[in-house]
Design brief:
The chain has eight helices and no strands. It has 177 residues and is mainly alpha-helical.
Length: 177
Amino acid sequence: MKNSDETAFNELYDRTWQKLYLTARAKTNNEGLAKELIQDIFIDFWDKKHIREIKDVKAYLNQTLRFKIIDIYRSKKLDFETLDDIENILIESTSSDKYLIERELNIILNYWMKSLPLKRRKIFELHYFENKSTKEISETLQLSIKTVQNQLITSKSSLKGVLQKILFILFVFFFRT
């Protein structure tokens, strides 16, 4: 592929497009969008063949499809009351490296942060990213200390649920037989 061998590219396309399409179709519920995704994946793959070091092409294509599907959900700003859709995308993975898994986890955690009510998100960010105490947060946001504590407890509980799902997914992902 790095030598711009169109025959090799066509062979790869012939071997992989159908499975990718079926996955995209199932996840998007839209035939046209699924076809567009597959086309985008292969165009991007061909355009960047000289730049990327890919050890497992099928895993790379599957991972690229997963990211594109997540981007579609993000662009449509769909609510993720549960992470079932993302769970399914991650569970179906055949292979991945540390960087790609880390990127997926960051995407999921960003969705979680965005799903929090604005006040709760601000309290969470002040406490965990800016290391503010509950007293400092209550003064900054003009809230009672008890409200800040309750919001932090609610946030931690919600995050714990998300992390449990992620850990389960990773366990299944890495230790499936």
